[in-house]
Design a protein that fits this description.
Strands 3, 4, 5, 7 and 9 form a 5-stranded mixed β-sheet that branches. The protein has a domain at 30-98: Immunoglobulin-like. The protein has strands at residues 2-10, 13-21, 35-43, 46-47, 53-58, 63-64, 75-80, 83-84, 90-98. The N and C termini lie far apart (64 Å). By secondary structure, the chain is mainly β. It is elongated, with a radius of gyration of 26 Å.
Amino acid sequence: MKKVINVFYIIGLLFFYKVEAYEVKSIDLSITNNLSYCVYYFYDDIIDINKTECFDNIAYGSYIDYFQDKPKKGYVLDSFTPITVLNNDDYLIVRYHKVN
């Protein structure tokens, strides 16, 4: 970090001000469009690993609020939470519950 202090006069008054300049580091942009996420499907809080879907080549910061609806017979959608893809560990959980 560089620090610069400048001094100047205005109508006989002394003023000090400080300007800080920061070194800008380069960012590896190749990773920003190379992320992935998975969608996990739960039925009464039990994961069905066969229905899991993973997606690649997702841009950093992508907002995911959609999924393929995969209800089993006798189940209805309970909930899901949209995500923003920030790394390769992101996932969307879709929950279904059995209709009585």
